Amino acid sequence: MESTIQRESTLLLIIKKIICEKKKSFLYTLAGLLGGTTVLGFWAAWISSEPTWIYGILVFLCGLACALVASMTFSETSTKEGRIAFLMTPGTSMEKYLPRVVFSVVGMIILSYLSFWTTTVGLELGNLVTRKEFIPVSFLTNFFTISLNSLNNEQILGIVILIALFFFMEGLYVCGSALWPKKSFLKTTGVFIAIQWAISIIGVIISSVIDWHLTYHITERDVELFLWIVAAFFFILDFLLFYAAYHRIKKLTV
């Protein structure tokens, strides 16, 4: 009982320490993303009364912000003083690892969700200023009012793949932060691009060497099954990336 209470108090101290350390970074990200998406919405409304293309820009901005924040998960270990402070913090490897990952990943999920609403506010303000009337932006807010019962298999599959890819991106940059805490975003992006290029070149070489003569007719069911396999593969990859980051932190603290 006493060890459980002590472990909970240690975890709370670590969480408080993380909040104090990353408070400025989080506030800058908060102000930048929410302020930027509000301006984006206002600018989009200035151009068109219903700019549905704003989805793409919004998803890109949220994805970029999530990647940047994830790449700073273990940024304090980039200096000798930071590593010493990190190692001297009482707690197990998991207690040092998990709160930082949750703070980065879950915090950015919440922030990305809020950015959709600030974009809506910007759109409605833009309509009010440019057209002198209040026009409810239903096409954006309807994104959050979709009933799960109304989704078909293709839509569910699409959502599952998006979730798998989101955690892949987060796992990739969290892992990069653990491996290369200094300039983590640039290094992780560079390695990822290099791996993509290598896979593409190998794929082209294999395709040119092997003469494919497929007589099997691919059905929609085959495509759907393949996409479910791809989603499962990415979820496994997500777990491996987060575990690799934990293994690196564990190795650092031993």
Report on this structure.
With 254 residues, this protein is mostly helical. 80% of the residues lie in helices and 0% in strands. It has eight helices and no strands. Helix 1 (2-47) packs parallel to helix 4 (93-131), helix 2 (54-70) packs antiparallel against helix 4 and helix 2 packs parallel to helix 6 (153-179). The longest helix has 46 residues, at 2-47. The model has no long low-confidence stretch (mean pLDDT 78).
What's the helix and strand layout?
Layout: H1 2-47, H2 54-70, H3 80-88, H4 93-131, H5 138-141, H6 153-179, H7 184-209, H8 220-253
Summed up:
With 254 residues, this protein is mostly helical. Helices cover 80% and strands 0% of the residues. The longest helix has 46 residues.
Give the helix level as a range of percent: over 70%
- Can you write the helix and strand succession as a string? HHHHHHHH
Question: Beta-strand level of the residues, as a percent range?
Answer: under 5%
* Sheet of most strands: none
Q: State the secondary-structure class.
A: mainly alpha
How many strand units? 0
Ranges with pLDDT <50 over ≥5 residues? none
Q: Tell me the span between the first and last alpha carbons.
A: 26 Å
Radius of gyration: 22 Å
Average per-residue pLDDT, rounded, comes to 78
The geometry reads as flat
Number of H/I helices: 8
